[in-house]
Amino acid sequence: MVAEPALPSTFIAELTDIVGERDVITDTDLRSGYELDWTGRFRGATPAIVRPADTAQVAAIVSLCRRDGVAIVAQGGNTGLVAGGVPMGGEMVLSLRRIATIGEVDRAARQLTVGAGATLAAVRTAAAAAGLAYAIDLGARDTATIGGTIATNAGGLNLIRYGGTREQVVGVEAVLGTGQTISHLGGLVKDNTGYHLPSLLCGSEGTLGIVTAARLRLVARHDHRVTALLAFAEVGAAIEAVSHLRGRLDALESAELMLDAGVRLVCEAFDLRPPFAEPHLVYVLIEVADSHDPTDDVAEAVGALTTMVDAAVAADDAQRDLLWRYREDHTLALNTLGKPHKLDVTLPIDRLAEFLETVPMVVRDVVPHGRTWLFGHVGDGNIHVNISGVDADDEAGDEAVLDHVASLGGSISAEHGIGTAKKQWLHLCRSAAEIDAMRAIKRALDPDNVLNPNAIFP
Ligand code: FAD
Ligand code: MLT
Ligand code: ZN
After folding, report:
1. Which residues of 109-120 are buried (b: 16+ CB within 10 A; e: fewer)?
2. From the CA of 205, which ligand is nearest?
3. Residue 264: how many CB atoms within 10 A of its CB?
4. Angle, to 10 degrees, between the axis of helix 260-270 and the axis of helix 317-328?
5. Which of 50, 56, 131, 149 has most Cβ atoms within 10 angstroms of its Cβ?
6. What pLDDT, on a 0 to 100 scale, did the predictor assign at position 3?
7. Ligand 2 atom nearest residue 344's Cα
């Protein structure tokens, strides 16, 4: 929590000239939703929220902030989980939610241009209406914005098949910290004319530029889907099974790991019936999607899993939704236990089982009262480690987990980013030379350090 920040009334008046009175928010009650992160663990404070309607207004705001040295945090849906989109250093919040136009789907190019504030769900719906699909999907789809997913290089539920957000972004429009606007939305997929700025902006967490629009790659929509929950008696068997399925099923779209404790928590929190009559230690939710019915392919691949102890296959959409609720509702269920410490890490596949088995002890050693919850995108080597029952500012468990991850050759952020929550541990994954190079890029594109100055760098 920072001291109540303030901006001169003349500056507020200039903001009002740009966007209009309605879209400069200074009222305490109206500010609070923009100041608190999704988990409720991180509360910042902002003097104002400004809500531009288009790229020109964003450019005018950034230039004004640069002139007066006013720091800005860009915010989309505020579903980020690393306190990167909330004003932890008293920054002004620049909300992109009004810039939400969705263009016509270009069926020939299989592309779509959208405003940064369009939600993931709206983009997915627009693509589906044109007989195509947007490859990124995640639990916060109804609120997370395209700008936020680009800024965090969001991974999500289908990365195993299509790659992450960076792989979907063909072009971007953005206002850099210099106040200059770059716009490259022509949609050429082969374009080796120098540095690929869309890739650089993916994962830049609002520190280099404010994304205002993007040209997105769409993929084929697959209407035939098989969704199944596979049960195992140990994590090593589950991980080996996923490797086997990846090798056999090209159309494997998701492979998500859960443990019995997490599934029980979800069932208790939301009054759901358990997936099996008898509980099992580990579950893997798989989804295979194709242009023809993949049932036989899935049956053959799954049938060869000698270590699998049980399986449930969704027979209809209601059952499919239930299987997905066991997985997706982990995030909401964990919030019923308080304000969890959320870590999202990747391990090399050959260290994943060891990590899953050892990490609860690593946490218990430093925070004996903390409880560890594990789930995630196992096909990508990405495990979500949540610690409940620990004070919001007690970071001993976080540090122990991240040290452990680094010692196993993993990454301290698989998909949520560094934000402000993890910046003190950036050095675990990045050398001094890499951090210097990143700082040099930051200085070049944001010379006055006005864009999210408290994120990423320690
Ligand atoms: P915000 O939270 O508003 O901002 C996130 C970061 O992006 C901040 O640093 C912010 O400054 C910056 N930013 C936002 N918009 C812009 C812009 N236009 N230009 C420049 N910078 C910008 N993430 C995953 O990767 N995979 C998942 O499976 C996943 N599942 C989730 C499930 C739930 C229930 C929840 C609550 C979150 C989940 N997340 C997941 C995290 C979150 O949804 C993603 O990080 C998402 O990309 C954030 O989008 P947002 O619009 O909410 O961004
Ligand atoms: C998920 O995969 O469910 C998300 O990344 C959210 C979380 O980590 O809770
Ligand atoms: Zn995730």
Report:
1. ebbbbbbbbbbb
2. 1
3. 14
4. 110
5. 149
6. 55
7. 8
Query: How many CB atoms are closer than 10 A to CB 22?
Result: 8
Q: Are 405 and 355 in contact (CB under 8 A)?
A: yes
Which one, of 227, 352, 222, 347, lies nearest residue 285 by Cα? 227
- What is the identity of the amino acid at 276? F
Mean residue pLDDT across the chain:
97
- What SS3 class is residue 435? helix
- Mean pLDDT along residues 189-202: 96
Residue the block writes with tokens 């000698």:
306
Which of 94, 152, 330, 346 has the most ligand 1 atoms within 8 A of CB, as the residue to mutate?
A: 152
Q: Is 39 touching ligand 2 by the criterion CB < 6 Å?
A: no
Shortest-distance Cα residue to atom 8 of ligand 2: 384
In the predicted structure, residue 2 carries a pLDDT above the cut 50: no
* Whole-structure pTM value: 0.98
Cβ atoms of 174 and 211 closer than 8 Å: yes
Q: Is the CB of 342 under 6 A from ligand 2?
A: yes
In this structure, which residue's CA is closest to atom 42 in ligand 1? 80
